[in-house]
Amino acid sequence: MDVQICEIYDSSYLNIISALFQDLDLPQLIDRLVPVDPQCQTRTSDAVKLIILDILSGRQALVHLERWAHEIDLSKLIRPGLKPSWFNDDALARHLDRLYEADIHKVISTCLIHIYRKEGLPLQAFHADTTDKTVYGAYESVSSEALRITHGYNRHHRWQKQIGFGLIGNEDGIPFYGDVHDGNLPDKTWNPEVLSRVHEQPKQAKIEDEWIYVADSAAMTKDTLAQTKAANAFLITRGPSSLRIVKAALAEADVQPDPAWSNSFSLAEKNGAAYRVWETASTYEGHPVRLIVVESSALDQRKGKTLEKERVKEAELLREEQARWERHPFSCREDAEQALASLKASLRPRFHRVKAAVEEIVRPKKRRGRPKKGVEPEVETLYLLRLDVEFHQQAWEQARRKASRFVLVTTVPKEWKGRTMDAREILKLYKGQISVEMNFSFLKDPFFTDEIYVKKPERVAVLGYLFLLALAIYRVFQRRVRQFITPERPLKGAGGRKLTRPTGQAIFQLFEYVKVVLLKLPDGRIQRALGKPLTYEQRRILQGLGMDESIYV
């Protein structure tokens, strides 16, 4: 009797995610938080793991998960003895409901804290922000406490039905706190509310130390400052340009001599923007704050375009004004002088120098018909307003420099935990805000988080929280790989590209064509084998993660 091929699975990187899920002890933790129902053939951790794998493999609707379970190596990826039919949409819906009843926010928060402990991640500085996600359909619930899925304007000012995501994470983008909230909750409300809840997270992680909360300009409120202090934290945020203390800091920075500013420095290794900083102090709503004026060589593109449009428009208006006054001379100097005074008062160009003066001209007086021979033509004296327009290069450069300035507001002391927290260090921490913004690209990527096809707001909330858990696992995976990839030993990615800080998706691509073959041996036993040997880069990644090909076979 020959060896028979029973099944061929496109396993790709799913086995790595499955092994990582196990290594983080998440199945045991989830089953402890949501106890196993003896009447159910599957555990909640089984359903969660399947949904996480589905999210990270290119998400499809839950109604199709049973069919997808037939196409994957279910026994290896989840646990032996499971049948695909046990993951029909009714069974998954019941698991979502049980997660909601167990307090899904608490379940995911506990998982995130556990991940931080397991990975030994520092709990010192966190970046916070919110985003929205479009949803479709009519969602009905009998509970007044359910997630409110409402119409509102998204970040691009488009009217849509949406839910909100709030995230707090470290510089690697690993969430420490996450929530799924009402679609219309403003950031100015979310920040103080979340600070009062996040305060409990470090306690659960047995961290009673001070920490730093980094957020965007919506955090610059009296309530947020008060809650930051109550949470044993310090705040770093961008000061809104409309704030009085911010305007004062910018005005004061304008008159500072160059020596008062710091030397130019860069935060990136290469091709990074150059910065100069100048610092002052003030108080806001009774809280002492440090104000750091930052000048960047990389002028914000939107501000640059706005300035250029303003300059072009101003030049056109001045040309039109010049032509208008030259077409309409005055008959008396007094009228011309009055018009000149009015013109000087109305003209306030930003990027041009305008010199206006009354010019006297004498010209023949126009008469009807041909002038008589030998008669001297009559002359008239007229008064023109002449405008001499010149581009003001210095004013233009000053406007660009001002546009490239922004103000950071912080309550972090200059010395903290034995570290010097000067203006440069504060700016560096604030620039780490991109880590949470990159997470939003994950949450909005149709590959990971396509449309949410569930009926109840409670299930929408649970699925949203599972997106956050999938994001945490994805970021842990990316961080672990980056720890052993160096500029000296880069990773050879798709197309032969050298990767020194590979993204999770770039690493996924290297495992895209890994196949597992199920063989039936002559004695009836089933054995797994790789379709073809792993490449050097694949083995290197697995070795760096503390794994080997046994995760497949």
UniProtKB/TrEMBL annotation:
<keyword id="KW-0812">Transmembrane</keyword>
<keyword id="KW-0472">Membrane</keyword>
<dbReference type="InterPro" id="IPR047654">
    <property type="entry name" value="IS1634_transpos"/>
</dbReference>
<feature type="transmembrane region" description="Helical">
    <location>
        <begin position="460"/>
        <end position="477"/>
    </location>
</feature>
<keyword id="KW-1133">Transmembrane helix</keyword>
<dbReference type="Pfam" id="PF14104">
    <property type="entry name" value="DUF4277"/>
</dbReference>
<dbReference type="InterPro" id="IPR025457">
    <property type="entry name" value="DUF4277"/>
</dbReference>
<protein>
    <submittedName>
        <fullName>Transposase</fullName>
    </submittedName>
</protein>
<feature type="domain" description="DUF4277">
    <location>
        <begin position="12"/>
        <end position="109"/>
    </location>
</feature>
